[in-house]
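#dry-run=false #mode=assembly
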Amino acid sequence: MIKNKKAQLEIMQSAFSLLIIFFIIAIAVIFFVVQMKSMNNQKLDQFLIISQIKKSKNIALLPEVQFTSENIAVSDHYDKAALMAFKEIIDNNQIYYRPLFQNVKLRLDEYDFKTGWKEQVIFDYSPKQFSDMKEFQIPVALTDPEEYRKSFGVIYLEVYS
Amino acid sequence: MKKAIIMSQLNWIYIAFVGGIIILSALTVIGKMKKSSEYNLVSDIKIYLDNILKNIQLSNKAEMDIKLPDVDVIFECDSFSIKGQQSSGLPISDNIIFSPRILRDKMFGYSLYWNMPFETEFFSYVTSPGVKYYFIDEPYPKKLFFTFPDIDKDLINFTDSNDEIKRDSGEKNYMIRIITTSAPTINKEVSAIKIEVITDKETFPDSFGKVTFFEEESEASSFFMDKATLFGAIYSQDQERYECNLKKAMQKLNVMSNIKRDKITEFKSTFLYCPYDEAIGYLNEMIKATAPLKTDQDSLMKIYVTAKKIKKENLLLQRLSCPMIY
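#status=ok
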């Protein structure tokens, strides 16, 4: 009877240690999965930020709207006439521009000494549903070649993801 | 006694079973971690390389030297990927990148603005230290040699070229490109570009000409319109990739010409004394020439000639103190 009890105890001991081992393995697997998930999320965030910066660079240096002097682009200087032409062209060239900019809204706020700030949307590819939006502000000089007039403006770039 | 033997055997079976499970779990986790770290490395390379490529593109005329991790980067016209990885490549449709198919160890980057005749798009050029460029000591390649970025390049005599190339081909250089104006000798590692200038010989490399891509088993021709496109041909693996990028550039030129035309059409009503009609006509010609995205001699020659006309009109407008096209 005593021997039987001892054997039962040993079996229970074995089952219990088996359970503990399984439990440790399960915890390790859960820890690993959680860790991987958080790493992937971090990577995704990083990727989103990089792609948003890339888009802002793309737009800040668009040859379509940059002001050129002697055919050399002047950085942070936009040609107002080209900007207006670009506004029209972009609607007719969605096949070309949509994949390039993706979910982006570009707005120009121009400061006029007489009338103050004037806002105009150059293009709006903002999606109806989005999880994140980053706004980039690029101060630019604007030249109106038609009136030989220079002004100041801010490009607001809203990048959605 | 018998029970003790059975118990001892059961214990051993139990140890073997549990040990097996632990080893199996550890191996699975290690395998998964290895796979995941490989995936992370590949995605890191892709993301950062994409950003580096953008920086190369936007740094006009700046030469960049970027160390690559221990992987081969495969460049196609519309995407790049990592050799041996099944994951899809990252698209580079918005960048115009001329490069050999494989980049290894390092990436040498260079960029030029494509002026046709106005600033249209950045052209990026990337290559690796394993790609060697031989410029044959003939007038055009020699002129090109001195304007070419400071990468692994040499100026050699045509008569010595075979010995020099034999010495340099092998493990160090996985690709050798000869730039010449005469019939080249080629083999598996050695490819060549033959340049024939058709018009404006005196302004070379800003002239119009033919480039023939010689590879081991094939020979194909295309055309260049200026230094930027000629560099593109030299950097490109083959004619197909070169023309694919050229088409992307033409698409952009078409959009740019539309913008310039619309811009000066607005000027026309304000500046009645300025002769904008000619310029509008030439820009319309440019739009028409670039729209079909054709890369044959006639189409590219048309673009080249129209660009020259627009340039001339722009100078005329400048002389008349009119707002210019660009």
